[in-house]
Amino acid sequence: MSALPSHASVVVIGGGIMGCSTLYHLANMGVTDAILLERNKLTSGTTWHSAAQVRALRHSRNLTRMIQYSVDLYSRLEEETGQSVGWIQKGSLSIATSPDRLTHVKRQEALAHAYGIEAHSISAAEAKERWPLMNNEDVLGAVWSPADGRVSPSDVCAALVKASKPLGAQIFEHTGVTGILTENGRVTGVETTQGTVMCDAIALCAGLWSREVGAMAGAEVPLLACEHFYLLTKPIEGITGNMPTLSDHDSHLYIRDDSGGLLVGCFEPMGKPIAPGVLNETFEFGLLPEDWDHFEPMMDLALHRLPSLETAEVKMLLNGPESFTPDGTFMLGETAETRGLFLGCGMNSVGMASGGGAGMNLAHAIVHGHTAYDLGEADAKRFAPVFNSVDHLMARAPEILGTHYDIAYPGKQLKTARGLRKLPLHDAYVAAGAHFGQFYGWERPLYFGKTAEPALRFDKPDWFENVRAEVMAAHEGAAIFDASTFGKIEVTGPDAEAFLLKTCAGDMARKPGSVIYTAMLNERGTYESDLTAQRIAEDQYRLFVGTNAIKRDLAWLQRAAQGFDVTLEDSTEKYAVLALMGPEAARIVADCGAPELNDLEYFKVGPAHIAGKHVRAARQSYVGEAGWEITCLSENAPVIYAALTDAGARPAGLFAQTSMRIEKGFRAMGHELDGDITPIAAGLDFATRKSGGFTGAEALAEARRSGAVPKVVSLKLDDETAVPLGHEPIYLDGQIIGQTSSCAFGYRVGGPVALGHVDRTLEDGARVQVDIARRLFDATIVLGPLFDPNGTRMKPS
User: What is the Cα–Cα distance from 216 to 365, expressed in whole angstroms?
Assistant: First the structure.
């Protein structure tokens, strides 16, 4: 083995699919001195035993786009290197044995059409024709996706390595990482069993060991390995050549042929976690013990689906580790804690399908500072620190394994690792019958007045009338929406204004007492975040960012603060925020000791006392009714809340807020706004400074010059029984022109409502159709808010 270099621009840690793909793409992007370190042999961790299914469709356009790139890459590698990758394209077949599963697969079929993937609904009989060994007596229908396939994991990695070496990349096997060197919060080198390599960046692709390696650099990498099972049989009659992958997700199974026999894998409802440290550096091409007792319920389901299994001779029950994250999506990008440390791990059993595109995007992030397209759902900075706890991971990871084949019901919540962070008013909300959802670890009320656990469904939800009552309270009386989970960042110092003028696109120079809505853009002129700022003094601002965005946005601001005399502080838990909204809000604040708030102008903030406690109230609204977002010390929230409710306000949850937000056309990060869209396309260019001077201003000006126009529209569906959930294709004259992004029932406008992206300019009132599970619903396009388009209800009377 050649000696390690003393320096490499990028060190890739881990020789599985993610490491090999990242190295290949770094070399192709001109990083000719990148090296890969593998403590054993390439593919010896999780990659070698992957079932290696490559199914393109995912829940978002860009995750799907990423896997489509993988498919293209794997076929291209054979031509490039002469190394076979074992690509077998026989399609995939997803069967449904329950009405809700049929709705689910038809929603997936609709999504496939939006993303340009071939998919077709077929009957149970047609499904049987494609999989003759299948018992189809209980099958209601299926979706056939002919472009899906599978690969040989080791061959793919061999091809990636073979293509990387001529470009200068080097691979060092039997080279374990023993430490990561950092200076001033940035990686500077890697200590290994073969010596030290200084470097500018690290791509951490160490699979199920990534959490421990990340900790060497002071970074949080919340993932945990679970046992993953699949059964292999010897050859059986009826399997000749290769067959499609059969997905029986109601039975938690995936099935395909393997060397003339069967491979039957499962994602059982609750997996088996593997504690950190159990699998150490000696675990090379290793497997875990067979566990037939654990697999038996899945075996019974498999025998029902495949009667020929009864007489098949078992080769082995393979039990290999796979790593899972707290939300079931991988981690990609630079960590918040350590500059230059980039994650490409936590693949949640889709490493082979994702690896080609994920490795490309990770290399792109290292070389260019951002992924090739928005992958916010996989952002390495999205998890609350509390999720890095071993106890929480041991509880959550097995459930995540079990949700792999879940039906995507609206309102579905995870059950494990709950109660991690509670709002100051948690007990009061429990007493009010709150049904909670978990967001960034917080327990946040979704709706109130729950009398029993809601049944999950695709039609009118069990909480429909509860949410109606809350919306009507805000519309006719007064409601309190708890916004305490929003991230809060204190920006103080002599350069506070100059710093925010540079990092934010809005008019940050407004006088103290002002509220400013602003975008925070990157150099490409697309969104890093949107936020609301309160200017409290000449040298003090308080920024309010999304619940899930606090870690990401604080890291972005800290890195932008170099050279400015400012201090940044996360004050999220110090303050509670209660949004009091509705026509009765004016009377209520007067009754509670703060009549002066009624003199506050729109988008102004000022101090007051409610129930004798100091507050800072901002005249603004996220729901389209008049009121204030009232910030107070967290310990004072119970007294203030009691006073407001005693005066007639009632609590309202996130479902009501979302319904009202969509009616008002208010955009939200992760829905209408992301790293691929500019304020112009979002219809929010009015909130950017035309004088420039902020990050992204030049790209935004160029977009204006090139004729960019708004592409976000409102929709109102005709059929009151329609239940759009988001991502549904929008059709005009039989052609897909866009997708919905946020959906709800609009109680104030009397029907289902949505926001969506379209690829062309439409006229106000244009008639379109929305595809919900392959049924087309008529809808009207509205260019602007569906409710109170002039905004008169939000302003002081």
Answer: 22
